[in-house]
Amino acid sequence: MNDVLHKLPEFASNHLALVALFVAILIALIVGEASRLFRKWKSLTPAALTQLINRDTPLIIDLSASADFEKAHIPGAKNVAMSQFDPETQKDLSKAKELPVVLIDKDGRSVGKAANRLIKAGFTRVFVLEGGTYAWQNAQLPVAKGKK
């Protein structure tokens, strides 16, 4: 073990690109995990969202494109285009500051910014569905079709 530690500086000087790549990946992982730990909204799995729906009355907002929403969405979800999402001016949202609000999109990748906007606007119970509508469908949970 001691021999390996003595050879580490030599390895690092011979393979600067590998060491730099390793350090960059390590920093990215640490920053990503730290931001996940300190965010004020929570991620839900499809099973956890089902429990929330059964135990409470969450406002479910689907930020998917309207064409994707019409193909499949969680029953009871309201479709709001991401470009028109404004927690300060939307009537449905201003009444729901104390309700749990669940944000969904097609794949769960773009709802984090919307969740942060809700937190900034004073919402206290903000959730995001991990994996979006795709995860919901993969869990074989019911979906609705059409505009409502």
From TrEMBL:
Pfam families, sorted: Rhodanese
CDD domains assigned: RHOD
UniProt keyword annotations, A-Z: Membrane, Transmembrane, Transmembrane helix
InterPro entries: GlpE_sulfurtransferase, Rhodanese-like_dom, Rhodanese-like_dom_sf
Domain spans labelled Rhodanese: 54-145
Residues passing through the membrane, by range: 12-32
PANTHER family: FAD-DEPENDENT OXIDOREDUCTASE, RHODANESE-RELATED SULFURTRANSFERASES
Official protein name in the record: Rhodanese-like domain-containing protein
